[in-house]
Amino acid sequence: MADLQHDLHTTPEVGEPADPFPPFADVPDAAVAPLSDPDADPLDRAHTLLAAHPVVDGHNALPRALRRLPFYDLQLGESGVGTDLPRLREGHVGALFWSLHPPAGLPSGTAVAATLEQVDLVRSVIRAHPEGLRPARGAGQVIDARNCGRVAVVLGPAPATALDDSLGILRVLHSLGLRVLTLAGTTWASEAGLTRFGEEVVREMNRLGVLADLSGASDATIARTLTLSRTPVLCTRSAARALRPHPDNLSDELLAALGTAGGLCMVPLAADQTGPTLRDVADHLDHVREIAGPGCVGLSGTHDSGAAHPQDLTDAAGYPHLIAELLRRGWPETDIALLTWGNIQRVLRTAEFAAQTAQQRREQSTATITELDG
């Protein structure tokens, strides 16, 4: 673990302050003080571990799903969706990244409005459930929510089309709480990779502290963003292409590059990407951990997104069963703590620190797509 920490901790440039949030600072040394009884039932051990290191779910589409319900109560439980507060508590979910991706088939030019409407809906949902949900804009607020017994809600990922090719709109969305943007589906982040304007978008995201989500992006866009970004990137719903071919899954080459860059591959609980069983998901987690390293793997429920889910992982309550399977496979407690909680905390804190540094050196960009891409 010490070697991995050293590899991922970037030495600051001359004149740059040292990073006050070194990788994995949130994870205790479980090798010295095990959190669970190694001889206990794996499912009991899983509950014990998750009570200390809850799940941060990297992609949950509940806001979109709630639009089709005339009435809902997430506090008591809601059968019409796969995510509610009783099941979040049962699954030991401490934070959710709420996807702002609109449903497919929207008319051209409506992505900005659709995204803002979903931001408004998220705010309404949180206001209606103050005893269970709390908005969070960074690592510290995620921890605060957990300490208060609430589930932290982080806005994003949002689609890149929501920017309407405007860095001003990116800044407005950031001011509303957006913290993750998916770089795919635009002329400046395409199969050919990032254009000059696309590169400027990434720089401005770094300056603001908005994380790049590369799930669904082309290999060329992924490779260029990994090189360009000064902060770690996310793949909020990507598994291993070597185990299951899927356009959103990553090749071993990209997984290795992601690990070298200190990024995070959040393996989705989606049957089309991982397979129909819980063991299939565990196989992908094993593979990503082996190729990218234990500091670069996370979880993504993809609940309420319309995706089919593996058996025993159909809703937010299923995480303890997955963690029990990893324990049976010999995963150390330190690696599980990174998987569920520590890795995303590292990424959030690194992005916040990098943004503070960048804002001291760089004014907000006024570039336009016309100026840079013609």
From TrEMBL:
Keywords assigned: Dipeptidase, Hydrolase, Protease
Domain of life: Bacteria
GO molecular-function terms, A-Z: dipeptidase activity
InterPro entries (alphabetical): Metal_Hydrolase (IPR032466), Pept_M19 (IPR008257)
The enzyme's E.C. designation: 3.4.13.19
Keyword check for Protease: yes
Chain intervals with Basic and acidic residues compositional bias: 1-10
Location of region: Disordered: 1-28
Keyword Transcription: no
PANTHER family: DIPEPTIDASE, MICROSOMAL DIPEPTIDASE
Protein name as catalogued: Dipeptidase
Organism, as annotated: Streptomyces galilaeus
Lineage start: Bacteria, Bacillati, Actinomycetota, Actinomycetes, Kitasatosporales
